[in-house]
Amino acid sequence: MENKARTLTKAISWQVIGFVMMAVVNYFYMGNFSQGLGLSALLTLIGLFSYYLHERFWAGVRWGAH
Asked: What is the mean pLDDT of the chain?
C-alpha cells in the first residue's frame, strides 16, 4: 500500500505536467496569457484534488493487487 506522502507527490508532479500543457493550449485558445494561466491554475487545482482522492481510494482496494 502506498503512503499518503507518495500519493501526494505523484499527484503534484502529474499536475505540474498537466498545468504546463494546459497553459500553452489555453493561451493559444484564449489569446490572453493571464486568462489562460488563470484557467489552467483552476483546472490544475481541481485535477490535483480529484487525482489524490482517486489514488487514495484505489490504495485501499485489494482487488487485483498481489
From this structure: 88
